[in-house]
Design goal:
Strand 4, helix 4 and strand 5 form a beta-alpha-beta unit. Helix content is about 30%, strand content about 20%. The chain has four helices and five strands. The chain is globular, with a radius of gyration of 12 Å.
Length: about 100
């Protein structure tokens, strides 16, 4: 099983309509306030409670994860997989900044 799939913005947006898909923004609250994708759920990766917060989510769902530039998003995807998330995990290459 792949830890996650790194997708271009076109591929990432095509996956947003995937059934049972959850859109996660792992940036901080200030970054989220400055702009985010519609219907994104904010779970900051740098929050000490990230693991606890993620444990409330369905581990079999499909996830679309993004951050500002891609670094935190990759770490979040790997963390989710290590926590036992078994659904598909998609990561936005170059993060939110790459959408501009």
């Amino acid at each position: 099983m792949e830890p996650f799939f790194n997708l271009s913005k076109q591929e990432f947006f095509s996956k947003i309509e995937t059934p049972n898909a959850i859109l996660l923004d792992v940036r901080n609250a200030d970054e989220f306030q400055d702009g985010h994708l519609e219907n994104a759920i904010l779970i900051p990766f740098e929050n000490p409670d990230f693991i606890s917060l993620m444990s409330d989510f369905d581990s079999s769902a499909n996830y679309l994860v993004y951050c500002r530039s891609g670094n935190r998003g990759v770490k979040a995807c790997l963390m989710m997989r290590s926590m036992g998330f078994v659904g598909e995990i998609f990561h936005l290459d170059k993060g939110y900044e790459g959408l501009k």
